[in-house]
Automatic annotation (TrEMBL):
The keyword Signal applies. The keyword Coiled coil does not apply. This is Secreted protein. Keywords: Signal. PROSITE patterns: TAT (PS51318). InterPro entries: Glyco_hydro_beta-prop_sf, TAT_signal. It comes from Streptomyces asoensis. Residues 1-35 form the signal peptide.
Amino acid sequence: MQEQHLDRRLFLRATAATGAALTVGSALGAQPAAAAPGGFPNYTYVRTLLTPSRLKYNPTGEIIFPCIRGVYDKLSSPLGRYYLYYAPHDPPGGVCLAYGDSLEGPFTEYPSNPIVSNNWSPHYSVSHVSSPHVLWNADVKEFWLYFHGENTTTRLARSTDGIHFAYDKVVLSASMLPAGTTETSYARVFRHDLPSRGARHVMVFMLNNTTNHRDIHWGWSADGRTWTYDQQPLIRHGDVGAVNVGGPHLLYRNNSTYVVYNKDKESGGDIMITEVGDDFSKRTHLGVFYNSRGTAPENGRAAAPSFGTDGGVPYMIYEAGERLAGAIAVARG
């Protein structure tokens, strides 16, 4: 298939990493867009996908941290071609699911949300769980869900259908990072080879400490369960002119690896991009990846992007609006 927007390496690796489907013959006829930094597409807002007030499960009036996954080629009878995971953040939170047949929506709320709650006996009882990130682990043909609760702890659960999960273990906690760390959360995990470290997976996440400034950190793992974490930030907030940065996601292009992440609204509210290289040795800050609009639904803040490709067209699904007062939106490249 001829890919119009992404070079072949990004197309293959990003699709594998996100599990988003590529559908032959369903191209939307979009014209090539102007390039963003690093030669990535220039994403443009299309529509709002999920609004808290329209959801049956809406304990706090807010939702965050979308994660989109193509499941049509992994499940025999999925609810839809795509599963969209998200969550409220404030207590009690709860990992939620919506499903649909197009990355542009519409998405239908799963009737039995949350699929993971803040009480899972005998494994934990916490104030909230949130920030779901689902990895398709092709080695074992399972959906691996990484989520936090409390903000100090990231956990792993596993599923064969993407809906019903079995608890596995804690994979990240503040105690694994330098003294003074107060939060280790909003983790995303990707299949990424680091031969020099004996690793086949990479995690990027947000870290807060007693200075109350949030940075992006990272770790690596051979199996996605047992991790080693770099004790130094991958991206420092001050190096990109921010008070806080968060919501990281890996992307690939031109034989290199990039991290996209969001600034806090006080620092501009945009999604930024930094090249880290395939071995994570670079720190080339490239500026704004996606410029948040001042109008609704973004109102000056875009955050926590997740990516997929449908019919050869790249999409970004993200938080739109002020933190804990926004919606889930989609932009097309």
